[in-house]
Amino acid sequence: MLCPRNCGVNRNQGEIGFCGVTSELLVARAALHMWEEPCLSGEKGSGTVFFSGCAMGCVFCQNHEIALGRKGKIISVSRLAEIFLELQEKGANNINLVTPSHYVPQIIKAIRQAKKRGLVLPIVYNSSGYEKVETLKLLDGLIDIYLPDFKYMDGEIAHRYSRCRDYAQFAKPAIEEMVRQTGEPLFNEEGIMIRGTIVRHLSLPGFLHDSKDILTDLQDTFKDRIFISIMNQYTPMISLKKYPELTRKVTKEEYDELVMFAKLIRIHHAFIQEEETQDESFIPSFDGEGV
């Protein structure tokens, strides 16, 4: 019952949830990552830990290899704590937990263990935004930076591509809780974020209207209390034959219009991307590195 799917599966008994995994920690990669937002990666890199399994199941997922919970290595909570410390030793700017929602209880234990052993880096919670406030409250005081998606405003679009018509109903209060926990954005002398919330929105081809609705809602709700990452890196995957409207990239004209719209509604704290981010080379290799 950790996420809005409420599948009711007893993952502690080895049953598999909607997320595709049991409660055993399944991790696909733990390494320095250079392609997060500049204030997270910097020159040293973000210490990303990619968890297998996902409660969203988006048809266009770029990390589909691990999202289905079929790839990765099973590790203990103590090993996860060690990985955090190893990434700190490698010079990471932060510990970046990618798709962590279905492992929140285990992650809480690992963070506490690592902090007792000398972990001082900011912790980044990098999620789909499809979260329960009750679960996020368990993390209060442990997470320094929230990095959620805001994928959809329109419930029908959310249902077609992620089978969650209620996506915005959960994402909006979840992001409000994240901002409550982190407060105003805070950076160190090198320009690296050490506290705050960055909301990502991945623009999909042909859905400019929904993207504009999302930016409007974020601006009206939070103004300069968050940063918004307006992303154009949507990459069509081979498995999208059932969704012909998603078999192309976002055009330069579509993305430019969205960026101009953000300026028009006075969004000041935003990241934008160049066209080369649509290249598949930006998708990491989930080869078990660092696990």
Automatic annotation (TrEMBL):
Domain of life: Bacteria
Binding site for [4Fe-4S] cluster: 54, 58, 61
Domain Radical SAM core, residue spans: 49-160
Gene3D superfamilies: Aldolase class I
Annotated keywords: 4Fe-4S, Iron, Iron-sulfur, Metal-binding, Oxidoreductase, S-adenosyl-L-methionine
Entry cofactors: [4Fe-4S] cluster
One Pfam family here: Radical_SAM
InterPro entries cross-referenced by the UniProt entry: Aldolase_TIM, MJ0674-like, Pyrv-formate_lyase-activ_prd, Radical_activat_CS, rSAM, rSAM_sf
Single Gene Ontology MF annotation: metal ion binding
Protein's UniProt name: Radical SAM protein
Native organism: Proteiniclasticum aestuarii
